[in-house]
């Protein structure tokens, strides 16, 4: 057990994220103790709890829930014997909920986790001055996280976090975690109720968390994309114009927080370009479109895979058409047609490689290919190239059929009209 503790502590002491190899080694040590019949009862229970802690951290680094499920089975068999085991089981269930792709399974696991965490909270020390008070606040944040997956209990989650945030704490990271969780609860409220005020409350919580994080901290770079996404979503909603520039500012910070070589860079470029396009829709400043064009040029070069590049090229084509509406230059339509062609080719490459399956949506690449071929057809029509437009529309129709989705009526109508004229 002592060796496992040392390995676990060394893993957490590593710069940046925890060291996965050291965590895995610690997990093996704890598993050996937990399953050793020669070890005393207390040692076996502690081994099971510490193994669960290591596996939860590993689940954040690796997309593999097999070991977590095994830990769940082990802890469920022991849960009646020890309060620490019950708390560990709640945390394992919460980690499984976070990884569940199916919403129904996620809600089921979250409800089980909430039940265990509520029981753990009820037995934790009450007085703030006691040594266990920090642990109590941590359980509150974990409980609220579990409740955030349950649409019917979001107000309860917010109340749990409000209490956690009113309690004094010496751990700024715990306060940041509570504020980020609160922001996510408000985002879930917006998804449930479509009330833009929930997005404003989410943005306010992210802003409070931001003020607690140093600019050179890892958490700073992780928080900015979420905050920017919330502001962007609020800017798209009713009366969103006042939020567009704030969204651009935060998304610009988000882009600057990672180097170009970082695999997260392309998505952040895409989101900033999206914010600039939205601000242009409100303000009409061509400078925003030209910057968005430049950012999308960078994004398609830095994309991690064909599906991400396809999305970048699609946005690039849209920007060319928007600039054409300002300038009237036909070359912008030529560029748009070329961008949509590149988007289609990248989408087909993504489909061949199974990229949609990897992101949890097997038909994503085919649907994107259908959309961009339809857009390409519109541009080719505007360029007075009807035969090429017909070919693009037919390709789009084939892809919609392949995706099992009815094609847009406007597309089939345009295709019929062009075929009649040819």
Features:
422 residues, mainly alpha, Serine Threonine Protein Phosphatase 5, Tetratricopeptide repeat, 20 helices, 79% helix, elongated
3D architecture notes:
This protein is an all-alpha fold and 422 residues long. It has 20 helices and no strands. Helix content is 79%, strand content 0%. 45% of the residues are buried.
Please outline what is shown here.
The protein has 422 residues and is mainly α. The protein has helices at residues 2-13, 20-34, 41-59, 66-78, 83-99, 103-123, 133-148, 154-166, 172-193, 196-210, 218-236, 241-256, 265-283, 286-302, 306-327, 330-353, 355-358, 364-382, 386-403, 409-421.
The value of Rg in angstroms is 26 Å
Instruction: Based on the coordinates given, report the CATH architecture of the domain at 305-422.
Output: Alpha Horseshoe
Output the structural class.
Answer: mainly alpha
Total beta-strand segments: 0
What string, H for helix and E for strand, traces the elements in order?
HHHHHHHHHHHHHHHHHHHH
Low-confidence parts, pLDDT < 50 over ≥5 residues? Answer: none
The percent of residues in helical segments reads over 70%
N/C terminus separation: 79 Å
* Biggest sheet descriptor: none
User: How many helix segments?
Assistant: 20
**CATH T-level topology of the domain at 305-422:** Serine Threonine Protein Phosphatase 5, Tetratricopeptide repeat
Note the beta-strand portion: under 5%
CATH class of the domain at 305-422: Mainly Alpha
Mean pLDDT: 90
Shape: elongated
